[in-house]
Amino acid sequence: MDPQAFYGKRNKIEMRPRRTIVVIPESSEDANASDDETYSTQDPLHINEEKEKSSSDGEDEEEDEEGKEELDQLFPECTEEHMETLENFTDNQPSTSQAASSSKKEKKDKLVWSDDNLQYDESNIAFLGSENLPDEIMQLNTPMEFFKFLFPSSAVNLIEEESNVYAAQIFPENLNSVTHKDIYKFIGIIIYMSVVHLPTTRHYWKEDTYVEKVANVMTCNKFEEIKRFLYFFDKTKELKPYDPQFDRLHKIRPLMKILRERLLKVPKEEFLSIDEQMIPTKART
């Protein structure tokens, strides 16, 4: 729908120049002037603005004179040469925009690698280790033996002890303690669940999705109970975040120490492959 057809066309308003009328009183000298003489048709508002400007200029001059008198009183020994040096100093100071532009230029500078920076001594990077496995590892045959070597019984004892202590702290009336065998079964079920995926843990015990290798080892309630009270350190020794000895990994630090001691027994090879997930980096590959 055309809005002009509905509302109708509007007439354009032409802006005419403003005219000022000067009324000359009969008693003034201009009343006797002839019609040929021209009169100033200046806007009265414009006249008032000029008066205000002239008055403000006068006030500024008075303030400048007062400021000079105060400077003379504070610094009587200041001469014209000193004033010139101060003016030159202020003129030579860089502006904020210039400082910002210079900082941007510094940020744009890029480092370029060259062969000169890669000077190194081969003796410092030579492989001095041994790739021969110790007899303790060479005697391992079954997967369970390898698992017990990397995850020793001391780690299982730690989990058993701390989990029972934590469960007693939460529910003192709970007498169902976790045993050494329960921890091994729990770890085995978790490893199996990482291979055979189901939507939830309870699906391994349901009739439709029943998994014998999980359901026959441990009941669902027992599994969830161990999972709920699983703990690796003594909660009574927990430090506050503002403590200088506070450790962010304090909840798993005891278990990490045991595993680290075991992993250090495995000798490193000469050539290693390091993934970006092992070392934090922002590089794009």
TrEMBL record:
Boundaries of every PiggyBac transposable element-derived protein domain copy: 142-284
Region described as Disordered: 1-108
Coiled coil residues, start to end: none
InterPro entries: PGBD
Biased segments, Basic and acidic residues type: 46-56
Amino acid composition bias (Acidic residues), ranges on this chain: 27-38, 57-69
Protein's name according to its UniProt entry: (apollo) hypothetical protein
